[in-house]
Amino acid sequence: MKIHRIYIHNFNCFVNFEFKVEGKSPLLIIGKNGTGKSTLLDALIIFQGIARGLVDVKQAFGFPPPLLAASAGLARFELEFIEQEVFYSYGFAVEPASDGKSYCVREESLLVGGRPVFVRKQAEVVTLKNGESSPAFNLDQNLFALPIIQTSFLDDPIAIARRAIADMFVLQPIPQLIKSDANEASAIMVKNCETFSSWLLHLLSSWPAAYVEIDRYLKTVFPDFRALVTVGSQAQSIGRHYVVQFEKEGVPLPLLISKLSNGEKCQLIAAAIMAVNAVSGGTVCVWDEPTNYLALNEVGQMMTALCSSFRKKGQLIVTAHSDEAILRFTDESTYVFSRKTHLDPVLPPVTLADLRERKLLTGDLATALRLGDVDYER
Known about the structure:
By secondary structure, the chain is α+β, with helices and mostly antiparallel strands. Helices cover 28% and strands 27% of the residues. It has ten helices and 18 strands.
């Protein structure tokens, strides 16, 4: 899968916001705090939650509803992507429910190759195959249709769309929450990476070759790294846990993943993400500030490795504030988010190349970043 376009209207700081990604990878988003970088991830999490089975609007959006306070109108979300060389477009529109405590679905649709697969208007849902529509059925407007419509085959367009969106990695790690226990494998890695160990167990069970990729990267960042193993078992009272084994001059030091530093945990996440991208057909990873917990001399190494991994396949979209991270991307693949004030919506994203062409950015980028001159509010 590769994201082509994201459209968001009336969601937090986004009003009529269009981000044409067009499959670029690696891609960087920069901007001052409060310009919508993390909000973009929140929107992708909503898409992902629906695809993973959150049928209820309130579950997908949370409470209180995160629409613009100044708007009581329709909120619209559209995600366009390429999967298996076919163009998919999934979108929906929601509006405040009469009780003011949630939303109800006004519209929802999935198009594949430009042709509708299902179309929804309020409660009525119509599915289509080969241009012919099936009898319409009604669905509670508090529920999304995408996770509910039944499919009989894995290659059904609706099933493919669900898997593609569900399998994205949308990450904003909180390393302190990562535990070592791996008693049950989980195919889901949540945004804060709290389920990392369970997801890692699933990854290595499904793709044993991924371990080679993890091992290769960790040995470049930790010279004393020896192995990543599980200890214990579900039958034992302590359960099963992931341990990172270090060694110096024959002296071993096993550490539970939970005992690693925050930066070391982020390096482990990066190793695993690059591994799944390498052994699969390519994955989408949207990561909010991947170098946030790293030492300055580690930033460049991680970003170079991530960019290299996702340059040939998959798609990497990251946000960053660090000069060292930002300088790893070209002007053409670096997008700037900006807004005039907190009461104004986010402006249309532009690349650094666009800013240079318009003479809004001149000279050294690192200096401009430190001075806060990388914007286009004027």
